[in-house]
Design a protein that fits this description.
This protein is α+β, with helices and mostly antiparallel strands. The chain is built from four helices and seven strands; from the N terminus they run βαββααββαββ. Strands 1, 2, 5, 6 and 7 form a five-stranded antiparallel sheet that branches. Strands 3-4 form a two-stranded antiparallel ribbon. Helix 2 runs antiparallel to helix 3.
Amino acid sequence: MNEQARRTIASYMTYQEAERAVDHLSDQGFPVERVAIIGQDVRLVEQVTGRMGRDGAVLHGAASGALPGALIGWIFGLLNWLDPVVSGLLLALYGLVFGALVGALLGLLVHAAQRGRRDFASVSFMQPSRYDVVADDAVADEAVRLLAELPSGTGTGTSSGAWKGSRLRSGPAVT
């Protein structure tokens, strides 16, 4: 990791805008290995995808157990010296069935143990509020100059010179 002092050269509301800025620097021959995109003010977002009843818990558990079961069965089958292909496929099938049954049972038990406290399914992800493009202090001024030349309207919905939804700025060193 580069331990040099870094300075924020631009901030953007979306990752695509920050990526576009770094791509522009790369196109201009700038040493982009001295640049980083940093997501700031990160928050955890949990998107609820639906209800999770008893049947859903069993199905989710079965799906979660089937693949590891098949994989373990296949690996054990490959260890058979006489006929590894047939035994590998057969043990993978047995592992799939066994893994699905064990997974379904565990899914049902976990759902029952929660007693309705969390009867929904969700997906979690991290979401920054902005993306800062930072560069090593030694090359930051050159990067700011090159970003000022960034053409507008190349697919990100920006307007002339000042980027819409983002701002060009210099800031304190970021280490």
